[in-house]
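Entry
Fold in token form

___
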Amino acid sequence: MATPNSTPIDSSSAEEVAAKAMHKRYEGLVTVRTKAIKGKGVWYWAHLEPILLANPETGLPKAVKLKCSLCEAVFSASNPSRTASEHLKLGTCPNFSSTLRPITTVSPPLALPLSHNHRKRSNHMGAPSSSYHVNSLVMVDSRRELGYSSPPPVQNPAMSGGEKMLSHHQLMLSGGKEDLGALAMLEDSVKRLKSPKASPGPELSKEQIDSALELLSDWFYESCGSVSFTSLEHPKFQAFLNQVGLPPVSRREFSGARLDTKFDEAKIESEARIRDAMFFQVASDGWNSKNFGFSSGEENLVKFTVNLPNGTSVFQKAVFTGGSVSSKHAEEILLETISGICGNGVQRCVGIVADKYKAKALRNLEIQNHWMVNLSCQLQGLISLIKDFSKELPLFSIVTEKCLRLANFINIKSQVRHSFHKFQLQELDHVGLLRVPPSKCENMKNFVYVYAMLEDIMSNARVLQLVVIDESYKVICIEDPAGREVADMIQDVQFWNELEAVHSLVKLIREMAQEVEVERPLVGQCLPLWEELRSKVREWCVKFNIDEEPVEKIVEKRFRKNYHPAWSAAFILDPFYLMRDTSGKYLPPFKCLTHEQEKDVDELITRLVPREEAHIAFMELLKWRSDGLDPLYAQAVQVKQRDPVTGKMKIANPQSSRLVWETCLKDFKSLGKVAVRLIFLHATSCGFKCNWSFMRWVCVHGHSRVGLDRVQKMIFIAAHAKLEKRDFSREEEKDAELFAMANGENDMLNEVFAVAPSV
């Protein structure tokens, strides 16, 4: 008897849960709006009102909307900031007049067109504000141009005697139009003498001031630590605000009410976007200890991002850990994060990508949750390959040892150093020491310092040649055997060939790593990426006459450590990689896989579907292998276009691969579910980057509860804004690029080499 009634009970329960969620969201928006109306939020809440729509049948809340109080229009409540920009700022709202517009859309007073109405001119001339005197003079002069030979002077009773005199005599200026500006300056001087206070800025409306402060706060929070709170109260900055007509701001306001409002808005939007997605991937970056050069540099900042099927990413949270974290603890944090995002519906999380813990934490979570695909970050894999070469390829240790001897001798021996600087100035127009790894640095594990030394020696090759043939150096060689060894090394062609070979290989892998960090490839691109790497390494071996066998072994060893069966499965299921056969069919590229990789595809697909659907998924995979995709759709998915920034050819519509499975391939019911959950997965965990200056602030202030709460909110706001703009760079990196363009070269080495884990 209980069976017939179970369905309506479950249905009503689900409706109540949804209604509670809607009501909670509505209350959150009302709270934000209430704060804003009290002067603790953004300007547009004065015109946008949250409303709760009810289901006419059940009476329960079913949706939250925003209503414009000026024109009664109704909008989605998912992004209030965007609604304000499109509806109010851009002029879509018919009742949002220029007087209500924010400062960014209103022209300054002197740019307003002059009126030709006599009554309006008189009103302007009688205005008591000093900023209107120039306008009144210009209008008086415009009467002459219109043919008024002797207009009567209009005076303001509130004017002083001197001002009345100036107003009266403005019609009889001997210099004509050219005197108007000088006369306005004279009036301003009189006013300043009467009231010796700082000149007030332009008079702005409350809406304009709110809009300007909103933009200022956006910039401040998105800079994420580049600008300190104390800078907001700097006298020069306060003077600037006064000059442009804005009120002074306080660090208390920006670290309190305004910060809370911004955080609430970003959090509501973020949660709404995650809620709308059927499934998602969690990206976790920052488990590796990053030393920013401060006393508390062991403090880790682990950032969690949610990757959505539509290609966008949403920031979730940041976790501070003290130093290294055990694999078990990392597993608990990952599981807690997933539960915090989707509650009991853990199956919505289809996978994790992280920059550490592939062997244990990620593997354990995958075993416990059979639907998950947990990947290690490809960026970290490439960087670890450099460490592999530095430890396992003898050429690296030989070149490193020789370069250390050379650099130390040049830097330490005073006579040699003076000669080196003399020829540096002559050849390169600057002087400096050769960079050498710190004494406590283990060169084979932290190759970043070694690479910097190699770069310095290569860029100073001509200088070093001049040093050793100089007469002063020959005198040193007579007395110092080490000097003769260094001279022989510098004049040895083999040394330079070996140095160039090591530098070239590291540069090759480094450039691929930088491209991966920027492009953020999906899991289906992993196999082609490593095949491209193998090809480039083989070319390197041929160019420098290096034995291929030991080099290929090192590459294959790192490939196996990073490999996941999902690489092969996504490569086969992604329509972008379909290959046209002789009959004209577009078929999955099984011939590019090894026998073991083909078995990985079968086993992974079987694991990701319910047990009762395993045989159906296998049969659909056979059909996909033999039939492929309609040629027209396959060609549409594979269309490429040139990226305007990089100039490279890229997929025109990255979402088309997933959309094809959800539309024209929907007959593959079991295989389709696996495909859409696989091909959108990211292969890198890198995302939002904190500035180094912000990390220093975290290390100093992040140990108190209040300080930590502010840090969390600032990170969330900055990350939310950057991910929305798909900006994954750091301000320091942009500055480095700017200075590199100015100097004609870039000596900065990406800091990621210093933080790669040993997987």
